[in-house]
């Protein structure tokens, strides 16, 4: 449940406070960028140095001005997060990091945890539910975020492709998984085959053929060669 006390990346940046109010609009572009930077850096390497924050967010400013900006925006961010929940911004061993405690949640951090630690069927289903929310920060354009989005996208595709082969997954879930894969990779053959198969099973062969034909056009346009797997072979 991410309806309250949460920071969400999937399907778009969104923040909800303790009462369940959407407070995303209170996060100005710079505050938002700082929050995202703290989250992804903490998840990847345990934190980020002050100099690196200055370089990524205020590279065009002199050192003194960049330091002042960082301190001002850290203070603003801390104030906003007080209403969201038990979220601590820390500076230890010259590294800035962020911690979600109590009932506060971040869908991105939860997904990474499940990728890393999840083993049981319940964990897999929980992770699948998270990923079906949509892409990571689809409308956020920051040069330095691309590497994080790309890495997460690759991990997501690998996971969802494995789910397409699960015999216990419902047709609806398989279709959702295929659609989510296409958001990350519009030329994914596993997703195409799963979607075509399910649509034909649901007596929608016309729609399945249209999706297949569009895939073939994009495949030819992007790679310069024809897609060789015939429609009939998929069904």
Mean pLDDT reading: 92
Rg result = 21 Å
What characteristic shape results from the CA principal axes? elongated
Order of helices and strands: EEHEHHEEEHHHHHHH
How many DSSP H or I helices?
10
Given as residue ranges, the uncertain stretches (5+ residues, pLDDT < 50) are none
Which structural class matches the secondary elements?
mainly alpha
Estimate percent helicity: 55-70%
Let me know the number of strands. Answer: 6
Question: DSSP strand (E) fraction?
Answer: 5-15%
First and last CA, distance: 37 Å
Q: If strands are numbered along the chain, what order do they take across the biggest sheet?
A: 2-1-6
Described by strand count, sense and barrel closure, the largest sheet is: 3 strands, mixed
List the helices and strands and how they pair.
Layout: E1 6-8, E2 14-16, H1 29-45, E3 48-49, H2 50-58, H3 63-84, E4 87-92, E5 95-100, E6 105-106, H4 107-117, H5 121-131, H6 146-163, H7 171-184, H8 189-201, H9 205-223, H10 231-234
Parallel strand pairs: 1-6
Antiparallel strand pairs: 1-2, 3-5, 4-5
Helix pairs in contact: 1-3, 2-3, 4-5, 6-7, 7-8, 8-9
């Amino acid at each position: 449940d991410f309806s309250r006390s949460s920071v969400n990346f999937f399907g778009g940046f969104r923040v909800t406070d303790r009462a369940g109010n959407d407070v995303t609009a209170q996060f100005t572009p710079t505050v938002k960028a700082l929050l995202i930077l703290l989250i992804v850096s903490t998840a990847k390497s345990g934190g980020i140095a002050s100099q690196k924050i200055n370089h990524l967010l205020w590279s065009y400013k002199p050192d003194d001005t960049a330091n002042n900006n960082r301190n001002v925006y850290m203070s603003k961010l801390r104030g906003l997060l007080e209403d969201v929940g038990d979220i601590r911004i820390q500076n230890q061993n010259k590294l800035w990091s962020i911690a979600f405690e109590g009932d506060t949640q971040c869908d991105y951090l939860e997904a990474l945890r499940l990728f890393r630690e999840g083993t049981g069927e319940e964990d897999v289903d929980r992770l699948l539910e998270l990923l079906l929310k949509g892409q990571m920060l689809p409308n956020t354009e920051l040069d330095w975020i691309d590497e994080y989005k790309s890495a997460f996208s690759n991990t997501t595709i690998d996971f969802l492709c494995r789910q397409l082969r699960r015999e216990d997954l419902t047709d609806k879930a398989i279709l959702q998984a295929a659609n989510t894969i296409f958001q990350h990779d519009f030329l994914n053959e596993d997703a195409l085959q799963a979607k075509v198969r399910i649509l034909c099973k649901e007596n929608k062969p016309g729609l399945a053929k249209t999706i297949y034909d569009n895939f073939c056009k994009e495949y030819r346009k992007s790679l310069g060669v024809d897609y060789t797997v015939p429609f009939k072979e998929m069904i």
